[in-house]
Batch of 3 targets.
Target 1
Amino acid sequence: MDLASLTAAQAAHEIRSGRVSSTELVEVLLKGIEATDGALKAWALVDSDAAMAAARAADSARARENNPPLLGVPFGVKDVIDVRDLPTSAAFTPFRDRLPSADSAVVDRLREAGAIVLGKTVTTQFAHADPPPTRNPWRADRTPGGSSSGSAAAVAALQVPFALGTQTGGSVVRPAYFCGAVGFKPSRDMICRRGVIPLSWSLDHVGIIARSVTDIALILGAATRRPSAPTRQDPPRLGFLSIAVKSADACVGEAVQAMGDQLRAAGASVQEAELQWPWELATATHHVIMQAEAAEAHRDLLAQHPDSYAPILRAYLEVGMAIGAADYVRARRVQAMLRRDLTELAGSFDALLLPSSSTQAPDASSTGDSALQAPFSLTGLPSMTIPSGLSDEGLPHGIQLVGLTGHDEALLAVAAWCESVLPAPSWPSLPGNRAMR
């Protein structure tokens, strides 16, 4: 059995059954990280000793009845999310020794469910746009996306079964798509944000990157204490957002059209979903709100440590400080209108279907374009990407699905049906990786 390739749900099942020990799994993953992360650079910190101690404790607890759902399953935590006694640096030098005394709410819930923190994954600085050191596991010259760069790369590279990310624009869905993983941004405030360094108070979300829709459902249930099983008997009704396809590269649009045809052939209803406003209205509104809120969140820290800020973020914050109150209020009013319209449109279908991003993973000088993810961070609707094969260049393709706020389990059920129809995901082979299994 290739332990590193186990999904989170598979690992949990194998550990509970006694066929695999948590100690064995953690040992294999640590060896894989040692073999591959010098080139991949997905981890800001690996807490090997604590993870091994927690794995031994999980194995000792296995004989008890009513074990928690994620007993002994390791996970990574994006380095803007607090883990007690581990630095939360947010890739910001003045924070390198910042040691939280308590877990964030989401880490606390996952530990309660039996999961084990393996370490902190690399983030772009303060979860913004400056490119990270992390490489895409499929192609070292391509970005893994951002800002949850390390989380997506580590999951796709078989270094850890799942990882936490955050999304303010497209920072869970986009890197998961670029790396060929499953990425889920839940409804606004579905996962508590206590203990997460803020970027934009009204747009920040905590999300999950994993290897299957079943994984996402299991982890979401643990994080929210609302267990669910994403099953769906009937083919879904999907609303195809061709307006989003038109803004994507030809190869991306053609791939999503082909996936739509494949889903239709399997029984899904795939119909045109029409917006009453230009796509750019949502992205522009998102920019105004995010930039103004980020500038306010960082005003004091930027004044204290201007030279410690990465260049793109520093310029972004300085421009954000010039956004006036009237412009911000107008943007919030447009946000409310867009939320109503998208909610009405999404409610006409079981889910909306569109590309996960406008391009495949571009070169490592950027983290990619957030235009096809940001409208759902703006409006708080749940969104996710699931992989759908590889392009001729050997880079992951995927589709994005969007549901109704508060109906995250229904979206996962649709995604599980689509996942069963689309090509099975594959994982990159990294130098030294398989040899350690």
Target 2
Amino acid sequence: MNSHLGGSFSDLPNDRMLLINQRCNAFELELSRGKRPRIEDYLEDLSEREWTIAIREMLPIEIEYRGQSDAGLNVKQYLSRFPEIDSEWLSTLLAQSRDGSTRQSQHVPAPTEIPDRIGDYDIVEPLGQGGMGTVYRAVHRRMHRTVALKILRGELAIKESMKRRFEREVRAAGLLVHPNIVTAYDAGEEDGLLYLVTEFVDGQDLSECVRTRGPLAWQSAMRFILDVATGLEYAHGKQVIHRDIKPANLLLDESGRVKILDMGLARLGLDDLSEDGQSELTQTGTIMGTAAYMAPEQARDTRTADERSDIYSLGCVFYFLLSGRPVFQGETVIDTILAHATRPTPSLASRLPSQQIPEQVDAIFQKMIAKNPADRYPSVKAIARRPAQGDR
């Protein structure tokens, strides 16, 4: 992060850091839709210090999108809009954008090339792989603390706009400290690799839990859902949306508490999904699990996900815990996405009669996965504050 514009993003108070990150995401969303938003419109109520920091974060986003459409501006044009900007920094930024094709062709380290050590962490063993990258068990060399170290997919680390977004998003994620959210400890870049260090949860994710134990009784499933809802209520209160709530991102620890993984970071791995549902990720099949839990409006444009999208996904998780299978599923990713958008909302009572699920619980589920976001709970608070029933 550059500091010559009057401070850095990480120097801001927590609430202002979250606010500017939200503004940057909203600005990028408009650009991705082919619009031409004005940076100035996102800065009107910011202090002078916040204004300069936000400018530094938003300009690289605008420069990249303008470059993609052959509508880039030169140094003189940008300085006429923002005379306070350091011209040398701006010249370097524009040069990097022009050389983007060269950077994109850089060598991307293969999984077998991952070193034995990254930063202060010794890598012990791989734990799994997802849309964002590969997760390893690692140990801090001095503190001897076991952690989960996630190395982002190589192509994400090469893209300049993704690097800056990574910085903002991990700063925001580091502010989320809650018993039902996996804590983010550290993040960095080494030898072209972007990595995130989080709390290591000694347990299993809910997908593995159902696979080994079988479908859960509705009382146990509801307790798990309430845990997740409580964590989401806290995160949503800080304007952080998950965007990828699914069983594999929900970890059950040894005490029986469910913790949310990758809170607020999912968009780093999912933004490639376009309006027609096609992307490099869908072609490789790596988001099949995600599609089974994704709200219809999010599948159309994943960047528009809000609290109600997380609620929809949580409802789909509830169904999976009860049945051992997704609520909607097709033979392909696109079939699954279309099923979420077009098939009728099911009733738990009719689909799972042996569970003897109370009518009230069935009504909660159906409201969570309503097709229209306006028909769902307006916030997760209505779910999180419900009394738990039954034993884990």
Target 3
Amino acid sequence: VRNSGAVTVVEGAGLHACEYMTNGTVVILGETSFNIGAGMTGGEVFVLGRNEKFINTEYVVPVPMNQDAAARVHAILEDYFAATSSSTARAVLDNWEGSRGELLWLLPKKVAATVNAEVEKASGAAA
């Protein structure tokens, strides 16, 4: 998927998912393969399951899921289910608390650094 602004849900992806992505949101609900996010400079990817070994960490890194990101992906999955009646999306939504814990939120390294700095700033302000 070479995405430059679309919102998409896929139920599986092969090699090089989200390669050279510059914007948008991709939710991957199924199996993946190697090189997720190669060349990715913008946007966000949500991957269901423990797929860390497939991430191209030269470009993207997992970031702790915050409330805004969780709400965004939940809304995307609700829309996807309404449009497709996907049993996979329904299962994720029916077990949202468990599924949320299984979602990896991947961001380009520079974007992730900004998000992490905002989280640290908020944590420091709350302390």
